[in-house]
Specification:
single chain, alpha/beta, Cobalt-precorrin-4 Transmethylase, domain 1, Methyltransferase, Cobalt-precorrin-4 Transmethylase, Domain 2, 3 domains, five-stranded parallel sheet, 11 helices, about 30% helix, globular, binds S-adenosyl-L-homocysteine, transferase, Precorrin_MeTrfase, methyltransferase, Precorrin-3B C(17)-methyltransferase, Cbl_synth_CobJ/CibH_dom
């Protein structure tokens, strides 16, 4: 029996409608992916915020277009489901990536509430796009080359204490941070509070870049410092990038070093490893080296906790695990 017959006999419903969650990137046609454009071309119905619908104007001739305002995310998802149930292919379009503060989450919430499962007859495809943090970073240099995170300052759906706690944690732990939704006509104090929290942990001279309307006609870049950031021109279409303690600005570029200076000396174009370090191996202060050092220090977990700003119970547990648990330093080279 052929697979097709088996399929027909089990009466599995053929996929009928389709919902495509399409990230358009920052807002320039050149930065849209091939799949994003193809998904829009393939769709019968396009649903999205007016500005983004305009970006794909050349692809939507003859299609049903449902323009929605910013605040109607759930309505957009409900409408998409409705059309898909009728067997239509629907493209829900978002700026950047649809999964980053975009339509992907609310759409799945609506789908699951309606009893949808991945096996049901409506197919869902998520088409990734370059998010604001990627595109804004590309415009200012290389600010995200080390650990970073994104925080939205929008308190429309998230309580302020939750946002403040996250700001505090990442400021303390020296992440590079991309602030989404930093300010709007009505939300002007959030960015000041973010600055206040950051200044508790970070140097006032920490570099900050503010990118407005990346890859759009009104694009604007501004470099400033943590101390002065709240005075800058920030709006709904800005992303604020705050550096970590190693980030610097040089020649009009914001750069976060990857950490090569911890391992190599570079002089006159020649590269040599620093004493005690080996190419392709963890740093001497990497996990195994560090464990050895704290073990040999003879210090208590409490003392070490203060020294390394780590929880005492973690240090105690790591010490208690003993050297036999050290993962034999694999010879694998790190990229
Ligand atoms: N899904 C989008 C984010 C939507 S939230 C993405 O992945 O990029 C809206 C926020 O995104 C804005 O307040 C701003 O902080 C940021 N943003 C979106 N497009 C931008 C652009 N072209 N330039 C700068 N920031 C942008």
């Amino acid at each position: 029996m052929s697979d097709i017959q088996t399929y027909a006999q089990t009466n599995a419903p053929a996929k009928t409608g389709k919902i495509m969650l399409v990230g358009l990137g920052p807002g320039a046609v050149e930065h849209m992916t091939g799949r994003a454009r193809a998904a829009i071309a393939e769709a019968d119905t396009i649903i999205g915020y007016v500005t983004y619908v305009r970006l794909v104007a050349d692809l939507i001739d003859g299609k049903e277009v449902i323009k929605k305002s910013m605040t109607e995310e759930l309505d957009r998802a409900i409408e998409a489901l409705d059309r898909a149930k009728q067997g239509k292919k629907v493209a829900l379009i978002s700026s950047g990536d649809a999964g980053v503060y975009g339509m992907a989450g609310p759409t799945f919430e609506v789908l699951f509430q309606a009893g949808w499962t991945p096996d049901s007859d409506i197919e869902v495809e998520i088409v990734p796009g370059a998010s604001a943090l990627n595109t804004c970073a590309a415009l200012v240099g290389a600010p995200l080359t080390h650990d970073f995170c994104a925080i939205s300052l929008s308190d429309l759906l998230t309580p302020w204490p939750t946002i403040a706690r996250r700001l505090d944690a990442v400021a303390y732990s020296d992440f590079v941070v991309a602030l989404y939704n930093p300010k709007s006509g009505r939300r002007t104090r959030q960015i000041q509070e973010a600055q206040r929290i950051f200044l508790r942990h970070r140097d006032p001279n920490t570099p900050v870049a503010i990118v407005k309307s990346a890859f759009r006609p009104k694009q604007r870049l501004e470099f400033t410092t943590l101390e002065k950031m709240a005075e800058a021109d920030i709006g709904m279409l800005s992303t604020v990038l705050i550096g970590n303690s190693n980030t610097f600005i040089q020649g009009g570029l914001m750069v976060t070093p990857r950490g090569y200076a911890n391992k190599y000396d570079v002089a006159e174009g020649e590269r040599s490893t620093k004493g005690g370090e080996q190419a392709g191996r963890s740093l001497s202060t990497g996990l195994n080296g560090w464990l050895e050092a704290i073990r040999e220090s003879g210090k208590s977990a409490a003392e070490l906790a203060v020294e390394y700003r780590l929880p005492e119970d973690y240090i105690a547990a790591a010490l208690a695990a003993g050297p036999e648990e050290d993962i034999a330093e694999s010879a694998e080279a790190e990229a």
